[in-house]
Design a protein that fits this description.
It is a single chain. The protein has one domain. The longest helix has 8 residues. It contains 1 helix and 6 strands, in the order ββββββα. With 82 residues, it is mainly β. The termini are far apart. A 4-stranded antiparallel beta sheet has the order 3-4-5-6. The protein has a two-stranded antiparallel sheet with strand order 1-2. The radius of gyration is 12 Å and the shape is globular.
Length: 82
């Protein structure tokens, strides 16, 4: 799933919605649920789920669009320090 820049490699389309990618990179559907949130460490992210193929991914906004975040990175950033 995740990787560096989102887009043609099968990741969600990194173009153009203010709250996350506009289309699913796996199936091309625009039927996406987008849940913006702030992780425990203060990182702004958007969880995106495709209604058509059930692909799920986490994205972080950048100046160039959206970067996919690997789930291990999301979990690390969301963990409360002890």
């Amino acid at each position: 799933m995740g990787g560096n820049r989102s887009g043609p490699g099968g990741d969600m389309d990194a173009t153009a919605m203010p709250d996350g990618p506009g289309r699913c990179g796996a199936c091309g559907s625009g039927a996406l649920t987008r849940l913006p949130m702030v992780l425990t460490d203060g990182t702004d992210v958007v969880f995106v789920s495709c209604h058509a193929c059930e692909r799920r991914e986490w994205f972080q906004p950048t100046a160039q669009g959206w970067d996919a975040l690997p789930i291990d990175s999301v979990l690390r950033r969301a963990t409360k320090p002890r």
